[in-house]
Predict the structure.
Amino acid sequence: MDFRLSSELEEMKRMVRDFVQNEVEEVAMEIEETDRIPEPIVAMTKELGLFGLGIPEAYGGLGLDMVSKCAIYEELGKTHNGYTTLVGAHTGIGSVGIVEMGTEEQKRRYLPRMASGEWIGGFALTEPSAGSQAYNLKTNAVKKGDKYVINGSKHYITNAVDGYIFTVMAVTDASKGPKGITSFIVEKDFPGFKLGAVERKMGLRGSHSAELFFEDLEVPAENVLGKEGEGYINALKILSNGRAGLAARNLGSAQKLLDMSMAYALERVQFGKPIFEHQAVQHMLADMALDIETLRALTYRVAWLVDQKENVIKEAAMAKLYGSEVYNRVADLAVQVHGGIGYMRDYPIERYYRDARITKIYEGTNQIQKNIIANQLRKLYGK
């Protein structure tokens, strides 16, 4: 496995790094206060092509493979996590289903506008009764002529406010359990689509999660994604594919926290010398660095396996699990290294600390990731 990047991708990483440092970071506190991503930042994101990271060039995207996407996600992780989530949810679970499973007609209709950022994507699986038990859906779809009529609701849907295209899971045959679920491509303007309450969250300001209600929502039959009855399998594939990207974003955030902690430790003087000279602080920084480098190796290995079309259910779950654990540990240590200033809202450490917490929950809780890993081990060992 060779994770060295091409000169073209190294140049793209540099451009994204400059954009993050010089543009997004400059408005990070504004995002926190207003809970909105400034329109100029969204416009520049479009100009850089970041909404089309994994969308093939034939449909207007950059056509990056997973290793390359993770290299960009790592840079995006080094800035405001609300902004990163807007982009990451769109380029990950919001669009990968259409890229991987869509018909040619579906790809031609949706991907160009998604690649340009005109249409933002989202993924609508979670319901009040279907969180960790993802197949326990109540939202149902009934075929009537050349349409499906969907009734039900979703909640905690990322990009619900800003998005236009949603991959929606609904039950088409309740008697078949998970095999009776079908995935649909839904446009916000379809009759019967309603936006519900916008959630007030601990973190991820600027990234909006909300309820979605479907009241006799009419979806053309040609908007079935994949085949009828394969929605749950599609959901698992989409989530597995996205977990390497999520790990890369966590990696970038953890690296940013280490960078800030090192700078502070070398400048902050206590007991007559920089706090970096105190062994207790050195040990915290060393623990952060060890976790980060281990996560980096795991993340890019999983990304490489995705590019080889390998089955990565176990490895992707490991990357999601370990990535979120590392981010949370590093965030906690970063607050400790910074002391009181790390707890203050006018300094970014506090923001990262709050934003880190959701990574143990969304796109499958860490406990579910352990279940997935254990089930894959059972299959591997033939028991």
